[in-house]
Amino acid sequence: TATMAESEYGRFVDWEKMGELAHSSGPSHLSCTDLRDLKQFARQGLWSQNHGTRSQVYQQLIRDVPCRTVTPDADVYRDIADRVGRRRSACSLPLPDFVDGGQVPSYCLNSDGTGAVRKIATCIANQFPDISYCPVLPSIIALLLHFSKDEAECFEMVCRLLACNDPGRRLLDQTFLAYESSNMTFGDLVSKYCPRVHKLVVASSQDVLDVYSDWLRWIFGDLPLPYAARVLDVFFVEGYKVLYRVALAILKFFRKVRAHQLETSGDLKQDIHTFVQGIGNFVTSQKLLEKAFAIRLFSRKEIRLLQMANEKSLQQKGITVKQKRQNVHLAVDADNFHSDIVSSKEMRNIWSWVPERFALCQPQLLFTTSEHGCSLTRFYAQCQGNEPTLLLIKTTEGEVCGAYLSTDWAERTAGNKLSFFGTGECFVFRLKPEMERYEWVVIKHPELASAPAAPDSSQTASTLTTNSTSESQDDPSSRLSPFLATRHFNLSSKTASMFMAGSLDFILVGGGDGNALYIDADLNYGRTARCTTFDSPPLCSETFQIAVLEAWGFQDAINS
Question: Residues 97, 192: contact at Cβ < 8 Å?
């Protein structure tokens, strides 16, 4: 330990608290520039047992980050740190406002180290006046201090991360808009990849997004140092998507452990923090990463498109700076909500499935057979201009099922013949006899879209999808979201993209072996069958008579 403490790196570390990390093993030097090798080494933890090697690898990886021409370096720090240091002691320096109450995690730092975090953060605020929101910054500084020769070197490394100018490479969010849209994106990913955890959160919390908004704090704040450093290893090599993976894996382990606990606090948000802080009692850092990389997540491109859609919805609603957020998951107001099919509690459960950017909206009744009569023509007229919509059906047997439909019904007239349209955000569900959602088959079986579709592929435009997917060729931003547009996927079968279709004679939702829903022109009779598009069983009795049919819109949704 003494040898390590006297090493080139680690002057800010309290080696007595470092445990096994204080004992060096593994390679003492690593010269590798091949990204595939680095990715493999990071996932395996090759340099995690040697403090000096990890420090050298971090220096190399961060040095390779493409940055703005004028990026503050170690010399700038030495110049301004003297002025900061003369005014007051480092330990008494307040953290910048953009940290928003974030604390300095100890991460086994000594007193010089905790003071250095404050000093470096103050100097970064001086050099980056455009940063308006970055609560994770103290944790990143504290972690990198472990692997820096001095404060100036740590400052330079953090500045390079903040000044990255590669548009395809996301490292640290620096505005409230980016931070909040990341939270929404994480919420969307939990809903799709951890449905059982999501169900638990919805049942236990009034504000679901409030629980998910702590996801970065779980990683950089709650995780013990050996775990946080392992995450940093892969983050520097593979980027932001890794953080989503790790947070999803944390939730999967949390649910597993919680299922065996006899007593819980009743505060789910706090229970997750407590679990992550004590994660060493349940799972190793290697098992956590293995679980994270076993999740078959969307491509980087799709996640970026989802993030952009979430940012756009926040901008449209004027939510660009931190403010007291309305309880978004109580958008279904029990006092003002009325449906002939579902209760406000059931509607809230459905609302928890819709993409986060629409969970900000109030439900708005567009059509009901109770009021508008049993006419498909009237249904189209009432729904046209609204995107997305929610279809609810109650049968004469009391069964309840429906569909979330991503795209405006006006798109059905885009061609001369019947054609399917919509995006992979569509899903179908049933509420009675029991509650179950069925999403696009490609989400659980990405092998059905084995490779990105070639951008000039004629098949993409003509057979896999119609022109109605959610992005205009001329101006991608003119439509709300290109997220999960089928042209992004090299689908092995047309049936995987049969989301929604409509004519004057019927409505179809889903295709393949059969339709998830078929509704006739009189909105009187329907059929449901096993459906390939959503990998769904029949949603109710296979042939049924409709008692009530409703279509709901999303109030203030951004329609094209």
Answer: no
pTM, entire model: 0.85
3-state SS class at 376? helix
What's at 515, amino acid-wise?
N
pLDDT at residue 388 is higher than 70: yes
Helices and strands (DSSP H and E) totals, the chain: 22, 12
For the record, the structure tokens of 253 come out as 């382990």
**Helix 268-277 to helix 195-204 angle, to the nearest 10 degrees?**
130
Query: CA–CA separation, 52 vs 50, rounded Å?
Result: 6
- In 3-state terms, what secondary structure has residue 324? coil
- Residues contacting 551, CB < 8 A, separation 6+: 365, 366, 367, 368, 379, 382, 383, 389, 390, 391, 392
Q: Is the peptide bond before 433 cis (omega within 30 degrees of 0)?
A: yes
DSSP string, 520-555: ETTSSEEE---BTTTTB--SSSSEEEEEEEEEEEET
C-alpha span between 252 and 525 (Å, rounded): 41
Average pLDDT of 260-288?
87
Stretch 468-477: mean pLDDT, rounded?
36
Give the pLDDT confidence of 44-59 residue by residue, as tens digits. Answer: 888 887 888 888 889 8
Q: Are 400 and 432 in contact (CB under 8 A)?
A: yes
- Residue-wise pLDDT for 154-177, tens only, equals 999 999 999 998 887 889 999 999
Closest residue by Cα to residue 260 from 281, 241, 236, 237: 281
Per-residue pLDDT, 25: 63
> Considering the chain, what is the average pLDDT of its residues?
83
pLDDT tens profile 218-234: 999 999 999 999 999 99
Q: Report how far residue 386's alpha carbon sits from residue 555's, in angstroms, rounded to the nearest whole number.
A: 9
Handedness of CA 198, 200, 203, 204 (dihedral sign): negative
Taking alpha carbons only, the member of 318, 294, 373, 371 closest to residue 340 is: 371
Query: Tell me, what's the pLDDT at 395?
Result: 95
What whole-number percentage of the chain has pLDDT above 70? 84
CB count within 10 Å of CB 477 equals 10
**Backbone torsion region of residue 166, taken as left when φ is above 0, otherwise alpha when ψ lies between -120 and 50, otherwise beta:** beta
In sequence order, what are the beta bridge partners of 434?
none
Give CA–CA dist 291/231, Å, rounded. Answer: 13
Residue 170 CA to residue 241 CA, distance in Å, equals 9
CA angle 117, 135, 65 (to 5 degrees): 75
Distance CA 172, CA 236 (A): 11
The predicted model gives 128-146 an average pLDDT of 92
Q: At what angle do helices 111-127 and 137-145 cross, to 10 degrees?
A: 130
Per the CB < 8 A criterion, the answer to whether 530 and 456 are in contact is: no
DSSP codes of every residue in 377-429: HHHHHHHTT-SSEEEEEEETTS-EEEEEE-S-GGGGGSSSS---B--TT-EEE
